[in-house]
Amino acid sequence: MLEADLVRLILGLLFLICLLVVFYLRKRKAARLLMVIGVLHMLGVIWVGRKPLSRIFREGFFGQADSAMGTVSAHADKELVFWSLLWGAFTFLIGQLISSLDKEGKRPPAYIGWELVGMILIAALLAPKDGFWLMLVPAFILIKDAKTNTR
């Protein structure tokens, strides 16, 4: 557990540095933050979950994340790594999508930001030590940008 907390601290500091850079650039803030969060999330999972991840590849890859929803404790860590990597990848993908919209001069509707807020709050309450709280920053930027775009 100490290793995971240390990784969270390091990734949190990296996030703050990236946050400063993104706000300095002043363009596509929400999109860039989502992509940063996705990458940092995957880096953290790869480091902390390196043992289950290596077992996934060592044991043949196919079907290795299917542990009957965590009921097979010997495989639950591999399933956790899978879902965590998937969350990071989808966060990055959402950031790319929003960045693409921004380049075209479009903004996603405010409800996308509000839906993210709802999901993030539930996830953050279930896992308060995880970095879900950081996702509130781009979610509220999306909400703010949608409101300024309608005027």
Notes on the protein architecture:
With 151 residues, this protein is mostly helical. Helix content is 76%, strand content 0%. The chain has six helices and no strands. It has helices at 2-25, 29-48, 50-58, 73-103, 110-126, 136-149. The radius of gyration is 17 Å and the shape is elongated. The mean pLDDT is 84.
Helix-strand topology string: HHHHHH
Q: Count up the helices.
A: 6
Uncertain segments of ≥5 residues (pLDDT<50)? none
* Helix-strand category: mainly alpha
What is the topological layout?
Elements: H1 2-25, H2 29-48, H3 50-58, H4 73-103, H5 110-126, H6 136-149
Helix pairs in contact: 1-2, 2-4, 2-6, 3-4, 5-6
In short:
This protein has 151 residues and is mostly helical. It is 76% helix and 0% strand.
